[in-house]
UniProtKB/TrEMBL annotation, chain A:
Residues 1-22 form the signal peptide. This is Glutamate-binding protein. The keyword Secreted does not apply. Gene3D superfamilies: Periplasmic binding protein-like II. Belongs to the bacterial solute-binding protein 3 family. CDD domains: PBP2_GluB. Keywords: Signal, Transport. It comes from Streptomyces nojiriensis. Residues 264-283 are annotated as: Disordered.
From TrEMBL, chain B:
SUPFAM superfamilies: MetI-like. InterPro entries: AA_ABC_transptr_permease_3TM, ArtM/GltK/GlnP/TcyL/YhdX-like, MetI-like, MetI-like_sf. The keyword Ribosomal protein does not apply. Keywords: Amino-acid transport, Cell membrane, Membrane, Transmembrane, Transmembrane helix, Transport. It comes from Streptomyces nojiriensis. The chain crosses the membrane at residues 12-37, 58-79, 91-109, 130-151, 157-179, 191-217. Belongs to the binding-protein-dependent transport system permease family. HisMQ subfamily. This is Glutamate ABC transporter permease. It is a multi-pass membrane protein. It is found in: Cell membrane. Residues 16-213 form the ABC transmembrane type-1 domain.
Length: 283, 224
């Protein structure tokens, strides 16, 4: 009898502890969300990628680095926010539209290609960067010079990504395509010669090639297989914010910080960056 | 709202067919492997018993994603074991089946072992008294009764397996979850509609399994 009572008491304690922590967590979330959508001037919530070196990366010590982060910080400064007032939130590809539409983030800077389907649900500012689908190959590999070479190659890309679909439907339907969960997993195969090339936007590839642990191992093939205009996603119909961000982007290019950010984040690995694109959205 | 289904761009049925194939191959494989494991765990040989126990406890408590990813990154990409697959499509499918069998086999084993416990000890003792060997006792007397007792738990394992096949998408097997990722990438304006299509697909796969095997379980149960 004593034992079962003790067990019951323990169970109740555990249950209480669990519900208590759950409450704490959700309350915190609600508070930060409220701050963002309420338009309070104290915090600015920006959506970025957490897993793309060179573009948007959350480092193990909790800092954020990358070109997208630099752009977001610059735009935020122009909107009147200090760097310590910016709160970065993870925006994985499939959730970007909903994060914006629900007001969870003010805007999204996350390798977000402008296209018509996406414009049905969100508006864009920019573009702030022109990327092309390209290939990352081993540094000593010279066998890929044009898109047709791919049909006999083993390629790797990320499950469901636009680049993977491009390969399957347009570029090289006969290529042997491996789709894995992330680009880092593809790098294992590339290093072990199980795959010949890793394909996605050249900006993302350059970020991986520029990582400290990969330096000198890989290079970009330098093919322009598609045009991806990265824009800053924002709530549909928010013309005021769109104009302000466009102005901020223009200023960033003019005062040279844009080029500096590109060189710092994507510099190494034979990456020839395009000049800053003309701003086309919202005019 | 569901107009993305009419575009002809997505082969939803084909993707679910791969899911069904993954499920069937893995189900057959894990039934065999699980039975072997259960045999090991009740065998009189300490070494086999030890291996069975260690394997089941180790693999059952390893996340399936790790196992399947380990098959791809570890076996295929690092060690070069491709299971005779020529393309990534074949290799990926076989590696996924291997991973699923390794994982699901442990659950089949534990379900069977509970079934073995429902067979009265007297049955095995009587068989021993007749002069049957351990293997004969197990395959002729104990397992047939044990199987009939655990149809319902095995149905649960099968349903879990059906849903677990989605993990194969992480190593690029073109099944339902992979197509869903593709559709979410292109049709982000209809996230909930896409999600509903795939949720419905899995309900259609698992619900009949549960109903059918539940009915079978009632029919064949040994009344004691």
């Amino acid at each position: 009898m004593k034992i079962s009572k003790a067990a019951a008491a323990a169970a109740v304690a555990v249950a209480l502890a669990l519900t208590a922590t759950a409450c704490g967590g959700s309350k915190q979330d609600a508070a930060s969300d409220g701050g963002a959508s309420g338009g309070a001037k104290d915090k600015l919530v920006v959506g970025i990628k957490y897993d793309q070196p060179g573009l948007g990366l959350k480092t193990p010590d909790g800092k954020f680095t990358g070109f997208d982060v630099d752009v977001a910080t610059y735009v935020a400064k122009e909107l009147g926010y200090e760097p310590n007032q910016i709160e970065f939130k993870q925006a994985v590809s499939a959730e970007r539209e909903n994060l914006i539409a629900n007001g969870d983030v003010k805007f999204v800077v996350a390798t977000y290609s402008i296209n018509d389907k996406r414009k049905e649900k969100v508006d864009f500012a920019g573009p702030y960067f022109l990327a092309h689908q390209d290939l990352l190959v081993r540094a000593d590999d010279t066998s890929i010079t044009k898109a047709e070479d791919l049909n006999k190659k083993k390629l790797c890309s990320v499950t469901g990504s636009t680049s993977a679909q491009n390969v399957k439907t347009k570029l090289a339907p006969e290529a042997d395509l491996l789709e894995l969960g992330g680009y880092s997993e593809c790098l294992t195969g590339l290093e072990n010669k199980k795959v010949d090339a890793l394909t996605t936007d050249n900006s993302i590839l350059a970020g991986y090639a520029a990582q400290e642990k990969n330096k000198g191992k890989f290079k970009l093939a330098g093919l322009s297989l598609s045009n991806e205009n990265y824009g800053i996603g924002l709530k549909k119909g928010d013309k005021e914010l769109q104009t302000k961000i466009n102005a901020a982007l223009k200023k960033m290019v003019e005062d040279g910080s844009w080029q500096k950010a590109v060189d710092a984040n994507l510099g190494p690995a034979n990456f020839k960056s395009e000049p800053a694109p003309q701003i086309t959205e919202g005019s | 709202m569901f107009d993305f289904l009419d575009s002809g761009q997505y082969d939803v049925l084909g993707a679910f067919w791969v899911t069904v194939q993954l499920t069937l191959y893995s189900a057959v494989g894990s039934l065999i492997w699980g039975t072997v494991l259960a045999g090991m765990r009740v065998s009189p040989v300490p070494l086999l018993r030890g291996f069975g126990t260690a394997y089941v406890n180790l693999v059952r408590n390893t996340p399936l994603t790790l196992l399947v990813l380990g098959c791809s990154l570890g076996l295929s990409q690092t060690l070069g074991i491709d299971l005779a697959g020529d393309t990534f499509k074949e290799t990926g499918f076989r590696l996924a089946v291997l991973g699923l069998i390794a994982y699901t086999g442990t659950f089949v084993c534990e379900a069977l072992r509970s079934g073995i416990n429902t067979v009265p000890v007297g049955q095995a003792e009587a068989a021993r008294a007749l002069g049957l060997s351990f293997f004969q006792v197990l395959t002729l007397i104990v397992l047939p009764q044990a199987f009939r007792a655990v149809i319902a738990p095995l149905a649960n394992v099968l349903i879990a397996l059906t849903k677990n096949t989605t993990v194969a998408a992480t190593i690029g097997v073109a099944e339902a979850a992979l197509l869903m990722k593709e559709m979410l990438e292109n049709e982000a304006q209809a996230v909930f509609a896409v999600f509903a299509v795939f949720a419905l697909g899995f309900v259609l796969l698992t619900l009949p399994t549960g109903l059918l095997l539940g009915w079978v379980a009632k029919r064949v149960a040994v009344k004691r």
